[in-house]
Design brief:
Jelly Rolls; 22% helix; mainly alpha; 2 helices; 5% strand; single chain; two-stranded antiparallel sheet
Amino acid sequence: MDLLNKLVPTGAGYKHDRIDDNADSHLRTVLLGASEALPILEGKLELGTWQRIFFAEMDGPRSRTVNITLLRA
């Protein structure tokens, strides 16, 4: 969060803030991405040693729905 706050500071005069006052949240989400594709092998996530999955709320707190779609090759 420290890095995101440095890269995209709150209240930096973004034009979008005149509409919703949450431009920093939108820009941080652009940097992190809003979706992920993950490999599953034999029913288990194939993550590297130091890889993890996390959900970060950039415009809240608020309720969110997480959608999971499984595609079979």
